[in-house]
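Residues pack. Consider this:
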Amino acid sequence: MPRTGRIGILLGAGAYVLWGLFPLYFPLLEPTGALEILAYRVVFSLVTILILVAARHRLGRLRRLSRPAVVRLSVAGVVIAVNWGSYIWGVNHHHVVETSLGYFINPLVTVLLGVVVLRERLRTVQWAALGVGAAAVVVITVDYGRPPWLALLLALSFGTYGLMKKQVGVEPDEGLVVETAVLVLPALVTIAVVTAGGHGTFVGSGAGHAVLLVLVGFVTVVPLLLFAGAASRLPLSTLGLLQYLAPVLQLLFGVTVRGESLGGAQLIGFGLVWVALLVLTVDGLRGRGRAARRAAGPATDPTDVPLALAEHPRA
């Protein structure tokens, strides 16, 4: 493997491992509530990314973004805020296993969005993968006695976010500036209201706690930059395989560290999801091979590379 490819794998693995370790970080922020954590994450992510963009002398490029791009990025910011808030709440309320399920089924939701929104055409095997994934959700719903709402919300919000980012096509750091900037005023209002109500935790919970809240911006931005470096060095199919590192780590953390249960029916449900992902991934890799062989010929069949293999990061 060329040196560029090895570096890309290291960067991509680093990004997804860090995302997979997020369940270790957010519990450290207790007793801060999920909404307050989200607000500080928005504020300090914006501060962090602005510093990095300024250091790279790229602030001027933000002014060249078109109005439609800014509008799409603003909506994407609201969608990713829903994802962030749901994930933080799930981790800090002992639903880590269900959050991992959300990111396991996310590629399936992404493929479904590609069909519904982008009118992508799927082959029979891809439809079969979606069917197996739907069966997994049914099994888990029966076991829970309710649909896995948190997992579905995470998968749908992140899939929608990835789709919108794909359509905008801007650099990750520039996009994150717009996405967090549109959220920073509501975030500051939230912090002010929580603090005025006597429930704020930034002051009064110790210097160490305040530092952890400040660092939530750094923790958010670093894996995004690692992913950007990997995306410029690796094919989408490789990134598509690496993305499963994060939910695997989340699942292991939920079961072994947080002591969450994983019963027989849940194992069957997760097993069906993994089968669906295996089918989808193998088919995607074959599609990449076919596209490469036809690179000098007619246009690539849009069903050759599922949108799931071009997944965007958890910003």
